[in-house]
Amino acid sequence: MAEENQGKGGRGTTTIADGVVATIAGIAIRETEGVHSVGRGASKAMGAVSGLRSGSSGAGRAVKVEVGEKQAAIDVDVEVEYGVAIHELAERIRTQAKGAVESMTGLHVVEINIYVFDVHVPDDDDDDDEGDRDRAPARVR
Residue 81 belongs to what H/E stretch? Predict the structure, then answer.
């Protein structure tokens, strides 16, 4: 659903597509310190590309939004950096995303649901050895 606002002075309407709101929120969330990545699997890979393009959308989107006439709700899947206090990070994510969406669109963000699906352990990136592939990566689920 798209958002329509009556412009001040009654000179027309402004329509903001859901994908625009998702892109704004996604960029703000990715820029939050402590977030390693947004989205899982294919949506994570696509989110890295499509989340930076305006007008992008799709079922694999890492950030999902519901937009009403004056309000928006946001759902996001994130992978966090190891050692970060997740409850504090969640509040930073909400503050960043809410601020960006509200200032850029004029919509009131009523909720941001965050699903932390993984913890990124820096040593996992350094394992280029083929023998290490049999070892299960450190995960917090």
Answer: strand 71-81
* pLDDT tens digits, one per residue of 22-70: 999 999 999 999 999 999 864 544 445 544 444 444 334 789 999 998 9
How far, in Å, are 4, 19, 94 from residue 1 at the CA level? 10, 10, 22
- By the 10 Å C-beta count (0-12 exposed, 13-18 middle, 19+ buried), 42 is classed as exposed
Domains defined for the chain, CATH in brackets: 3-134 (3.30.70.1350)
pTM assigned to the model:
0.70
Phi-psi region of 120 (alpha: psi -120 to 50; beta: other; left: phi over 0): beta
The residue whose two tokens read 């990545």 is 37
